[in-house]
Design brief:
about 45% helix; alpha/beta; two-stranded parallel ribbon
């Protein structure tokens, strides 16, 4: 609201420097609050490597969850909210199954609204056998099972402003991702072929199929995830943050 904008701008006037998680956040601060671009620093959300623990092989992980042992598993993980586009992913599944009949969608996370409409969509598209739902909070000790079980993580967000904690978990496990072109999601991948437009189940399906059916591309995306894991490490975030503070101290000293 206009009042929110006025109050936020008033608070931001006190800042000497600003740290944001994505380039899209940086652009928003410049555009809406007229903050100097030299005062804004992009430090990516560090990779969430606290879930790794003991290595679990894919077969064991899938059995722990109750998934088919064979086939490609597409994972959608985290709190289930409307803006995250789970319905887009469900609608994309029939198109994916035409070319990858053994594909399976795993939806895991706590539901924050009514799940009934998603169930109706699954029933209408006759996808009960191709979708596994775990609609509850996933304890930290179980998280690795879901990522070790998956071949691909899908983040089909309809709208978004910042970075994704789920995407940073996926980087920790070096799993290829498909993301939509919203907020900072494209910064979770290094290849445009893993990015599609939001609110477009056909484009989402084509992007997922192109990755799962092309082993060279899949291998490249896995390597890209490993590279980003190193780039977005906690050590790198700490170093960048300390550098900003030191610059501020030096500027004030002069």
């Amino acid at each position: 609201s206009p009042l929110d904008h006025i109050l936020t701008k008033s608070v931001l006037r006190f800042g000497s420097a600003f740290i944001v998680h994505s380039h899209s956040n940086r652009e928003e601060l410049i555009k809406h609050f007229s903050i100097s671009d030299t005062a804004i620093h992009v430090i990516h959300m560090p990779v969430h490597d606290m879930y790794e623990g003991r290595r679990v092989n894919k077969v064991e992980a899938r059995r722990n969850i109750g998934l088919p042992v064979e086939g490609d598993v597409i994972l959608n993980f985290g709190n289930l909210r409307e803006y995250k586009g789970v319905d887009q992913l469900i609608e994309a599944m029939p198109l994916i199954l035409r070319d990858i009949p053994t594909a399976h969608l795993l939806i895991a996370g706590q539901n924050w609204g009514s799940w009934a409409r998603y169930d109706r969509l699954i029933e209408r598209l006759e996808l009960k056998e191709q979708i596994t739902k775990v609609l509850r909070y996933i304890p930290m000790s179980e998280v690795r099972n879901y990522f070790h079980a998956a071949d691909l993580v899908a983040l089909p967000y309809k709208k978004f402003d910042a970075q994704s904690g789920v995407g940073n978990i996926a980087l920790s496990f070096e799993i290829p991702m498909v993301v939509t072109r919203v907020g900072g999601l494209p910064e979770l991948v290094k290849d445009e072929r893993a990015v599609c437009e939001p609110n477009n189940p056909i484009a989402l399906a084509e992007t997922i199929k192109s990755i799962l059916l092309d082993r060279h591309l899949y291998s490249k995306l896995r390597g890209d995830a490993g590279a980003l894991k190193r780039t977005y490490s906690w050590a790198a975030a700490v170093k960048s943050t300390v550098t900003i503070y030191r610059q501020l101290v030096d500027n004030n000293a002069h």
